[in-house]
């Protein structure tokens, strides 16, 4: 706990207004809001041969072990008790030196490991950017699928009634995930030469709850210092922005049922601090669109993100 306290004691209280609001709202599964193909089907836990344990220890007091299921044509992990980082590396000759830690979403109760994880990482690696999927530790859920589904229904039904937590409670609540994020940055920089990464060009992109973790990492983990951050359909409440805040890319659908009507304070906060920010508000797309190919313009977010990375020099323009 002392380690977490040392990470969060600086710039702590006022900058977590976004997280305070977000944790009260962002308990949505990282999946498209749609009725079709939404059945959760248990699947065997993959081998994950390339996953590297981050050394942050097992989740305290965990009783359920990691399990996986399929939904929306994609795969999800839950009850993650040991954090890992899985590299997706470009060919050495194509590597730009930039790297991205990818944080999937899922309300801190599950992780969208393909749509917001490996699919994103593979697309980045194809453009010369080293990508690393962060499988961070999660809140425990019932072991059986029926119990898990019921717990999620109860969580959704009480979202509007949940009292707003204190900022200090939010940070304490995210302590395991912040420790995992910190360890991920340390691991990438430690292996920078081997992975053809410039240690000063390591950024982070997150989705939904992963976006919350990405912003919390920038605001509270002093040693992380991401070169850039990407927040994809996360909460956008105002924060106090650090003087050295990195460039930020934000994408959200206007019809997002969780964050589409909550204002854009975060964007204004970055602008008021005169820090670089790019914001894409898509007319349609709902929540959890990720790398799913939909008919809405939200599907273009990754192309927009890639062009933004290119503009800043983290991707080499095609000739």
Automatic annotation (TrEMBL):
Domain Dienelactone hydrolase: 106-294
Signal sequence region: 1-35
GO molecular function: hydrolase activity
UniProt-listed SUPFAM superfamilies: alpha/beta-Hydrolases
Keywords annotated in UniProt: Hydrolase, Signal
One protein family per Pfam: DLH
Protein name per the record: Dienelactone hydrolase domain-containing protein
């Amino acid at each position: 706990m002392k380690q977490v306290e040392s990470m969060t004691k600086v710039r702590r209280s006022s900058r977590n207004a976004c997280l305070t609001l977000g944790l009260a709202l962002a308990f949505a599964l990282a999946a498209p809001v749609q009725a079709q193909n939404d059945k959760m089907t248990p699947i065997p836990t993959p081998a994950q041969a390339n996953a590297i344990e981050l050394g942050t220890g097992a989740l305290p007091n965990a009783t359920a072990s990691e399990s996986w299921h399929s939904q929306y044509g994609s795969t999800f992990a839950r009850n993650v008790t040991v954090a890992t980082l899985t590299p997706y590396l470009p060919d050495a000759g194509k590597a730009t030196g930039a790297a991205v830690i990818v944080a999937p979403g899922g309300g801190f109760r599950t992780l969208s490991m393909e749509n917001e994880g490996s699919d994103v990482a593979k697309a980045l690696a194809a453009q010369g950017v080293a990508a690393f999927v962060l499988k961070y530790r999660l809140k425990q859920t019932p072991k059986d699928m029926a119990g898990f589904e019921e717990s999620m229904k109860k969580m959704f039904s009480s979202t509007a009634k949940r009292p707003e937590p204190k900022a200090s409670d939010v940070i304490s609540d995210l302590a395991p995930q912040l420790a995992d994020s910190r360890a991920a940055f340390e691991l990438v920089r430690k292996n920078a030469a081997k992975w053809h990464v410039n240690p000063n060009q390591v950024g982070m992109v997150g989705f939904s709850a992963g976006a919350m973790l990405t912003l919390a990492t920038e605001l509270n983990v002093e040693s992380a210092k991401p070169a850039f951050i990407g927040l994809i359909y996360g909460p956008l409440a105002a924060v106090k922005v650090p003087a050295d805040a990195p460039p930020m890319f934000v994408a959200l659908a206007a019809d997002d049922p969780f964050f589409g009507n909550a204002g854009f304070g975060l964007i204004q906060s970055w602008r008021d601090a005169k820090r670089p920010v790019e914001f894409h508000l898509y007319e349609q797309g709902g929540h959890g669109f990720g790398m799913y190919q939909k008919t809405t313009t939200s599907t273009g977010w990754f192309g927009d993100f890639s062009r933004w990375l290119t503009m800043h020099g983290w991707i080499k323009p095609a000739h």
